Protein backbone atom coordinates (compact mmCIF):
# COMPACT_ATOMS: atom_id res chain seq x y z
CA UNK A 1 0.00 0.00 0.00
CA UNK A 2 1.28 3.47 -0.83
CA UNK A 3 1.74 5.50 2.33
CA UNK A 4 1.02 9.21 2.05
CA UNK A 5 3.75 11.32 3.65
CA UNK A 6 1.53 14.11 4.79
CA UNK A 7 -1.57 12.51 6.20
CA UNK A 8 -1.91 14.96 9.07
CA UNK A 9 -2.74 18.04 6.99
CA UNK A 10 -5.08 16.00 4.79
CA UNK A 11 -6.91 14.69 7.84
CA UNK A 12 -7.06 18.18 9.32
CA UNK A 13 -8.65 19.42 6.10
CA UNK A 14 -11.17 16.57 6.03
CA UNK A 15 -12.08 17.11 9.69
CA UNK A 16 -12.31 20.88 9.66
CA UNK A 17 -13.49 22.05 6.24
CA UNK A 18 -16.36 24.45 6.38
CA UNK A 19 -18.08 26.77 3.97
CA UNK A 20 -17.85 30.50 3.78
CA UNK A 21 -21.01 32.39 2.96
CA UNK A 22 -21.15 33.72 -0.60
CA UNK A 23 -22.71 36.79 1.05
CA UNK A 24 -19.43 37.49 2.84
CA UNK A 25 -16.89 36.89 0.08
CA UNK A 26 -14.45 39.20 -1.63
CA UNK A 27 -11.38 38.94 -3.88
CA UNK A 28 -8.97 37.61 -4.70
CA UNK A 29 -10.14 34.39 -6.23
CA UNK A 30 -8.04 31.60 -7.68
CA UNK A 31 -5.58 32.61 -10.41
CA UNK A 32 -5.51 30.76 -13.75
CA UNK A 33 -3.01 28.11 -12.60
CA UNK A 34 -4.95 27.52 -9.41
CA UNK A 35 -8.19 27.15 -11.33
CA UNK A 36 -6.48 24.53 -13.50
CA UNK A 37 -5.55 22.66 -10.36
CA UNK A 38 -9.09 22.94 -9.00
CA UNK A 39 -10.48 21.45 -12.22
CA UNK A 40 -7.89 18.65 -12.18
CA UNK A 41 -8.99 17.76 -8.65
CA UNK A 42 -12.66 18.12 -9.64
CA UNK A 43 -12.53 15.37 -12.26
CA UNK A 44 -10.69 12.95 -9.98
CA UNK A 45 -13.85 11.41 -8.60
CA UNK A 46 -15.35 7.95 -8.62
CA UNK A 47 -17.27 7.58 -11.87
CA UNK A 48 -18.92 4.21 -12.54
CA UNK A 49 -18.41 3.29 -16.20
CA UNK A 50 -15.95 6.15 -16.79
CA UNK A 51 -18.71 8.25 -18.35
CA UNK A 52 -17.57 11.65 -17.04
CA UNK A 53 -21.25 12.59 -16.76
CA UNK A 54 -20.59 16.19 -15.76
CA UNK A 55 -19.14 19.40 -17.14
CA UNK A 56 -18.33 22.91 -15.94
CA UNK A 57 -19.41 26.47 -16.62
CA UNK A 58 -16.98 29.14 -15.42
CA UNK A 59 -17.96 32.69 -14.54
CA UNK A 60 -15.21 35.24 -13.96
CA UNK A 61 -14.82 38.99 -14.48
CA UNK A 62 -17.43 40.71 -16.63
CA UNK A 63 -19.31 37.50 -17.40
CA UNK A 64 -20.66 37.65 -13.82
CA UNK A 65 -22.35 41.02 -14.42
CA UNK A 66 -23.56 40.01 -17.90
CA UNK A 67 -25.11 36.88 -16.44
CA UNK A 68 -26.45 39.08 -13.61
CA UNK A 69 -28.43 41.09 -16.14
CA UNK A 70 -30.08 37.86 -17.33
CA UNK A 71 -30.77 36.90 -13.70
CA UNK A 72 -32.32 40.31 -13.04
CA UNK A 73 -34.57 40.10 -16.11
CA UNK A 74 -35.66 36.57 -15.28
CA UNK A 75 -36.40 37.52 -11.66
CA UNK A 76 -38.47 40.44 -12.91
CA UNK A 77 -40.44 38.16 -15.26
CA UNK A 78 -41.07 35.68 -12.43
CA UNK A 79 -41.88 38.32 -9.79
CA UNK A 80 -43.33 41.40 -11.54
CA UNK A 81 -44.40 42.80 -8.15
CA UNK A 82 -40.84 42.88 -6.75
CA UNK A 83 -39.10 46.22 -6.30
CA UNK A 84 -35.63 47.52 -7.18
CA UNK A 85 -33.98 46.01 -4.10
CA UNK A 86 -34.98 42.44 -4.96
CA UNK A 87 -34.03 42.97 -8.60
CA UNK A 88 -30.62 44.35 -7.62
CA UNK A 89 -30.07 41.33 -5.34
CA UNK A 90 -30.80 38.96 -8.22
CA UNK A 91 -28.58 40.91 -10.60
CA UNK A 92 -25.66 41.00 -8.19
CA UNK A 93 -25.79 37.33 -7.20
CA UNK A 94 -22.63 36.28 -9.03
CA UNK A 95 -20.75 39.48 -8.19
CA UNK A 96 -20.49 38.26 -4.61
CA UNK A 97 -17.46 36.11 -5.47
CA UNK A 98 -14.64 36.55 -7.99
CA UNK A 99 -15.14 33.04 -9.40
CA UNK A 100 -18.26 30.92 -9.75
CA UNK A 101 -18.07 27.38 -11.11
CA UNK A 102 -21.26 25.73 -12.28
CA UNK A 103 -21.11 21.94 -12.04
CA UNK A 104 -23.52 20.49 -14.59
CA UNK A 105 -24.72 16.92 -14.21
CA UNK A 106 -25.07 15.42 -17.67
CA UNK A 107 -26.49 12.14 -16.38
CA UNK A 108 -28.42 10.26 -19.05
CA UNK A 109 -30.00 6.80 -19.31
CA UNK A 110 -27.32 4.17 -19.88
CA UNK A 111 -27.64 0.41 -20.34
CA UNK A 112 -25.51 -0.40 -17.29
CA UNK A 113 -24.99 2.69 -15.13
CA UNK A 114 -28.05 4.07 -13.33
CA UNK A 115 -28.71 7.79 -13.65
CA UNK A 116 -28.63 8.01 -9.82
CA UNK A 117 -25.00 6.88 -9.77
CA UNK A 118 -24.06 9.41 -12.43
CA UNK A 119 -25.73 12.15 -10.38
CA UNK A 120 -23.89 11.07 -7.25
CA UNK A 121 -20.65 11.41 -9.19
CA UNK A 122 -21.55 15.06 -9.95
CA UNK A 123 -21.99 15.60 -6.20
CA UNK A 124 -18.52 14.18 -5.65
CA UNK A 125 -17.19 16.65 -8.24
CA UNK A 126 -18.71 19.53 -6.27
CA UNK A 127 -17.16 18.22 -3.05
CA UNK A 128 -13.72 17.87 -4.64
CA UNK A 129 -13.92 21.47 -5.81
CA UNK A 130 -14.66 22.58 -2.24
CA UNK A 131 -11.69 20.62 -0.90
CA UNK A 132 -9.32 21.81 -3.63
CA UNK A 133 -10.30 25.47 -3.20
CA UNK A 134 -10.05 25.20 0.58
CA UNK A 135 -6.63 23.54 0.34
CA UNK A 136 -5.46 26.43 -1.86
CA UNK A 137 -6.55 28.83 0.88
CA UNK A 138 -9.77 30.11 -0.66
CA UNK A 139 -13.20 30.46 0.87
CA UNK A 140 -15.98 28.63 -0.96
CA UNK A 141 -19.62 27.64 -0.82
CA UNK A 142 -21.75 25.15 -2.76
CA UNK A 143 -25.08 26.77 -3.62
CA UNK A 144 -27.89 26.07 -6.00
CA UNK A 145 -30.31 28.88 -5.30
CA UNK A 146 -33.48 29.34 -7.40
CA UNK A 147 -31.67 29.43 -10.72
CA UNK A 148 -30.72 25.75 -10.56
CA UNK A 149 -34.43 24.91 -10.80
CA UNK A 150 -35.57 27.49 -13.30
CA UNK A 151 -36.14 26.60 -16.96
CA UNK A 152 -35.47 30.13 -18.14
CA UNK A 153 -32.05 30.26 -16.49
CA UNK A 154 -31.26 26.74 -17.74
CA UNK A 155 -31.61 28.13 -21.27
CA UNK A 156 -29.40 31.13 -20.45
CA UNK A 157 -26.76 28.72 -19.09
CA UNK A 158 -26.98 26.59 -22.22
CA UNK A 159 -28.10 23.43 -20.42
CA UNK A 160 -29.34 20.61 -22.61
CA UNK A 161 -32.73 19.07 -21.76
CA UNK A 162 -31.19 16.14 -19.84
CA UNK A 163 -28.69 18.31 -17.94
CA UNK A 164 -29.13 19.66 -14.39
CA UNK A 165 -27.12 22.10 -12.37
CA UNK A 166 -25.60 20.13 -9.48
CA UNK A 167 -24.01 23.15 -7.90
CA UNK A 168 -22.76 26.67 -8.18
CA UNK A 169 -19.47 26.83 -6.32
CA UNK A 170 -18.61 30.35 -5.22
CA UNK A 171 -14.87 30.77 -4.64
CA UNK A 172 -13.12 33.80 -3.21
CA UNK A 173 -11.63 35.21 -0.06
CA UNK A 174 -13.59 35.30 3.18
CA UNK A 175 -14.55 38.86 4.12
CA UNK A 176 -15.28 37.73 7.70
CA UNK A 177 -14.04 34.86 9.87
CA UNK A 178 -15.74 31.60 8.91
CA UNK A 179 -18.38 30.42 11.34
CA UNK A 180 -18.90 26.74 11.86
CA UNK A 181 -22.28 25.19 12.40
CA UNK A 182 -23.21 22.34 14.75
CA UNK A 183 -22.35 19.03 13.10
CA UNK A 184 -24.33 15.82 13.42
CA UNK A 185 -23.01 13.22 15.85
CA UNK A 186 -21.77 10.55 13.46
CA UNK A 187 -22.19 7.79 16.05
CA UNK A 188 -25.90 8.58 16.23
CA UNK A 189 -26.12 7.84 12.52
CA UNK A 190 -24.43 4.45 12.62
CA UNK A 191 -26.28 1.21 13.12
CA UNK A 192 -24.52 -2.10 13.06
CA UNK A 193 -26.29 -4.45 10.75
CA UNK A 194 -27.85 -7.52 12.29
CA UNK A 195 -29.83 -10.24 10.52
CA UNK A 196 -33.43 -8.94 10.23
C1 LIG B 1 -26.80 20.63 -3.36
C2 LIG B 1 -26.62 21.73 -2.35
C3 LIG B 1 -27.18 22.98 -2.59
C4 LIG B 1 -27.04 24.01 -1.68
N1 LIG B 1 -27.58 25.24 -1.96
C5 LIG B 1 -27.45 26.25 -1.08
C6 LIG B 1 -27.99 27.53 -1.38
O1 LIG B 1 -28.57 27.76 -2.44
N2 LIG B 1 -27.86 28.51 -0.45
C7 LIG B 1 -27.22 28.28 0.76
O2 LIG B 1 -27.13 29.20 1.57
N3 LIG B 1 -26.67 27.08 1.05
C8 LIG B 1 -26.78 26.07 0.17
N4 LIG B 1 -26.24 24.83 0.45
C9 LIG B 1 -25.57 24.65 1.76
C10 LIG B 1 -24.12 25.14 1.74
O3 LIG B 1 -23.40 24.56 0.68
C11 LIG B 1 -23.35 24.77 3.01
O4 LIG B 1 -23.60 23.44 3.33
C12 LIG B 1 -23.71 25.64 4.16
O5 LIG B 1 -23.31 26.94 3.85
C13 LIG B 1 -23.02 25.15 5.45
O6 LIG B 1 -21.68 25.06 5.26
P1 LIG B 1 -20.75 23.79 5.56
O7 LIG B 1 -20.20 23.36 4.24
O8 LIG B 1 -19.69 24.37 6.48
O9 LIG B 1 -21.59 22.76 6.21
C14 LIG B 1 -26.34 23.80 -0.46
C15 LIG B 1 -25.78 22.53 -0.22
C16 LIG B 1 -25.91 21.51 -1.15
C17 LIG B 1 -25.27 20.18 -0.87
> Distance between termini?
36 Å
Contiguous helical run count: 6
Q: β content, as a range?
A: 15-25%
Q: What is the quaternary state of this protein?
A: single chain
Average pLDDT works out at 96
Helicity, as a percent range: 25-40%
Count every beta strand, where a strand is a DSSP E run of 2 or more residues: 5
Identify the overall geometry: globular
Structural class, judged by helices and strands?
Answer: alpha+beta
Gyration radius (Cα, Å) is 19 Å
pLDDT < 50 runs, ≥5 residues: none
Order of helices and strands: HEHEHHEHEHE
Q: What is the makeup of the main sheet?
A: 5 strands, antiparallel
Can you list the ligands bound to this structure?
Answer: flavin mononucleotide
Amino acid sequence: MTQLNDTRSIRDLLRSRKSASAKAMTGPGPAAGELDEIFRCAVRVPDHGKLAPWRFILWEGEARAEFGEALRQRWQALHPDHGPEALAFAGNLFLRAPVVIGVVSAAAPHPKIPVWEQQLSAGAVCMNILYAATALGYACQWNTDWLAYDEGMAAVMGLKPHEKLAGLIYIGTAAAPLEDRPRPDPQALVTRWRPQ
